[in-house]
Amino acid sequence: MASITIWVCSLLVMLLACLPALMVLKNLTLFRTATCDPKWLDAARKQTVRVVIPARNEEATIERSLQTLVASDFPEWEAVVVDDASEDSTPQLVDRIAQHFPQIRRIEAGKLPEGWNGKQHACWRGAQGATTDFLLFLDADVRMTPDAIQRIVAQQLASQAPLLSGFPKQEMGTWAEQWMIPMMHFLLLGYLPIDRMRAGTDPAFSAGCGQLFCSRRDAYEQTGGHSAIRGSRHDGIQLPKTYRKEGLATDFFDASDLAVCRMYHDTQQVRSGLLKNATEGIARMPQLAIFTVLLLAASIGPWMLLVIAWLRNWSPLLQTLLLLVGFATWIPRFLIARRLQQPIAGVLAHPFSLLWFLLLQWKAYSMARTGRSIAWRGRSS
Q1: pLDDT for the residue 309
Q2: ω into residue 38 within 30 of 0, thus cis?
Q3: What CATH number labels 32-263?
Q4: Which of 71, 261, 306, 331 has the fewest CB atoms within 10 Å, i.e. the most exposed one?
């Protein structure tokens, strides 16, 4: 009986370990870059786009981002930079560029209303009064290629999804960034069935990247857009969920060949950034308990069982299988890193990345239970 129990437990762990590898293999074929089909590119050039950029204390990045925007070869676009009570030289830098490019203007977000998150309020303010066909929301640190707007709109026309999100290429400098930023892609591609997401509008399959969203203006107005998630800090999940609750399709694509950004710059920013978004993602029950079991069993479980197998002299066949599955736990991260050109250091550190990620999720859950929140860019909302 003990032998049967050992084999059953080991096989269960092996199955859980193989799940993300199989899912990544499938999802990488569906996680495509934006279309280059001339039919859709030509159709895109007939559309109009307002780019909305929320900006709070972005003096280190905003000028470079706007310079890539004004290099766009898209014919009909305008940009609204919404200054969200910046305390640095962000307004002056935007104004200096706007003097030379009439497509760009800066507005003030104004006083943050009660119950609103700063970014959601800035995005909502920037969308007001738009008459364009599409609204393109960009974080202030995203830099784009000249053909980016055209290809984003072309992809949206091809997908027929009222809301489309792109995942830019993530620049990573410090070890903390290399360990933790790729976890975003690991969870997305390892545990979300993209084909099922595209087959319907179930809010359970909501996913996106808050750095780059493109919406049809009429759909944005229908759903309430960012006003519907006014208190959220995680628009990457909450904005698609709003659309899907209204029965509107959402989609995402690999934007690594047309947009790039550096999300965080040091260990403290990585830690704070993950904590501030956690409770709207995994760090709530029962998701946290489920993902803790899934992730530990899938990436740590085979190695723990292998150590026990050596110490207790289990079947050589079982030990060999556990060893092979243990090495297979790196396959998803390796495949994603190769496809998205991510540092190999993050792949090698995968078990430690996963443990740190889970610890941060549990910390976020504990903080939420005790009424504490993480400040970001000088404020807690």
Answers
A1: 75
A2: no
A3: 3.90.550.10
A4: 71
Q: Is 80 exceeded by the pLDDT of residue 12?
A: no
Residue with tokens 């997305």: 188
Report yes or no: 368 and 283 within 8 Å, Cβ to Cβ. yes
**Tokens coding 275:** 């904590």
222 pLDDT more than 50: yes
The DSSP element (H or E) to which 293 belongs, if any, is helix 287-295
Q: What is the mean pLDDT of residues 243-263?
A: 95
Q: Where does the pLDDT of residue 2 fall: very low under 50, low under 70, confident under 90, or very high at 90 and above?
A: very low
What is the rounded CA–CA span in Å between residue 122 and residue 81? 9
Is a pLDDT exceeding 90 seen at residue 232? Answer: no
Give the span between the Cα atoms of 129 and 112, in whole angstroms: 19
Q: Edge-to-edge strand order for the sheet containing 250-261?
A: 104-108, 77-83, 49-55, 134-138, 212-216, 163-170, 250-261, 143-144
Q: H or E segment at 142?
A: none
pLDDT of amino acid 133 = 95
Supply the pLDDT for residue 377: 62
Measured distance CA(202)–CA(189) in Å, rounded: 18
Token reading at 6: 């050992």
Residue spans per domain, the chain: 2-27+283-369, 32-263
- Which pair of tokens denotes residue 95? 């104004």
Indicate the burial class of 200 (C-beta count within 10 angstroms; 0-12, 13-18, 19 or more): exposed
Residue 100 burial class via C-beta count within 10 angstroms: exposed 0-12, middle 13-18, buried 19 and up: exposed
Instruction: Name which of 18-22, 38-42, 66-70, 157-161 the model is least confident about.
Output: 18-22
Tokens of 185: 């892609």
- 203: three-class secondary structure by DSSP: helix
Residue 25 dihedral angles phi and psi, to the nearest 5°: -55, -40
Assigned token pair, 188: 């997305």
Q: Of 258, 308, 287, whose CA–CA distance to 364 is shortest? A: 287
Is it the case that residue 15 has pLDDT exceeding 80?
no
Q: In terms of Cα–Cα distance, which of 142, 140, 166 is closest to 153?
A: 166
Residue type, 331: I
Burial of 19 (0-12, 13-18, 19+ CB in 10 A): middle
**For the purposes of burial, counting CB atoms within 10 Å of the CB of 55, is it exposed (0-12), middle (13-18) or buried (19 or more)?**
buried
Checking DSSP bridges between strand 212-216 and strand 163-170, what pairing results, if any?
antiparallel
CB atoms near residue 246 (< 10 Å):
15
